[in-house]
Input
Amino acid sequence: MQSARHPDRTRCVPVSGPRRCARVAAWLSVLLAASAGAAGATPLDYFLHTAGPAAAPTMRLGWALTALVVAVVIIVTVLLAIAIVKPRPTGFALDAVLPERGGMRWVYIGTTLSSVALMAALIYSLVVLETVAAPERRPELTIVVTAYDWWWKVEYPDDGPTSAPVVVTANEIHIPVGEPVRIALRSADVVHAFWVPQLAGKTQTIPGQTNEQWIEADRVGVYRGQCTQFCGVQHAHMAFEVVAQRPEAFAAWRAAQAQPAAATPDADAAAGKRLFAARCAGCHSVRGTPADGMQAPDLTHLGTRRLLAAGTLTNTPGHQLDWIQHAQEIKPDSLMPSIPLSVTDAAVLSAYLATLR
Output
């Protein structure tokens, strides 16, 4: 059987039924993209290994607190088992037995040890916070990241003396390797949290204020990030990627991203451009064209990104059309509507999107 969406695909469910296979495929694509993110890394690598100086102290703190919690659980479990197994004397009365047998002494010892352990954990946490508060060198690059339900707007503003042009992209942050980068965090709607486990701890984005964080990558790679503050039904599908590049590669990427959209080379792409202006330009922008929407991701260089819809799909022509036509099935309650397209409209729109590189 074939799919009504794409004639070359096997159909997962009847056309008239719910398209659950699209959702399952979307979730699987997220996991596969994460697994292939950084030189063959597995998803656990994003939480068990660090790749930058801002993340290493936080990771050590996490392991220390984990060890403390495990030790407490083991001790309490052992004591509870002893209390259950050990026979009690006839006529046992807690008030009478504890003083006579020195039982309160163990209560005092346990309370003291717990207080010391918690105080040590507090001091260690404060030391780590101070360690990662600021990088050793002043960041030369500032990136403004604004969280939306449920995607990330990424802006590279004009950074003064270098007169670098403004770059706007979405869900993909490029940084130069070996250089600290200041991240200015904002929210356009509700509270979100910005977290790249391998590069830094998490920082909340709060409406009406700008929070700051810094990240730095020790090596070239792709590092997955995620919103870690529950922000609605698609919170789990609000991911992004940090792409760490050699300085010269980063400079070339930024220069290319600053360019306006390329001219449409053929009639199909030109027709797709007109369709985009009529159906998509109210929300999306494409620099160098009349499309100047501000409520959705900038698509000027859509083709250079690895993922779509904040990490929900891989960026392929098929997934682009799938997302446009079935957004509410793939990512329910997102602000992207499902837009029905005829076969001809889908073909010309795909031809135009292919020029956005």
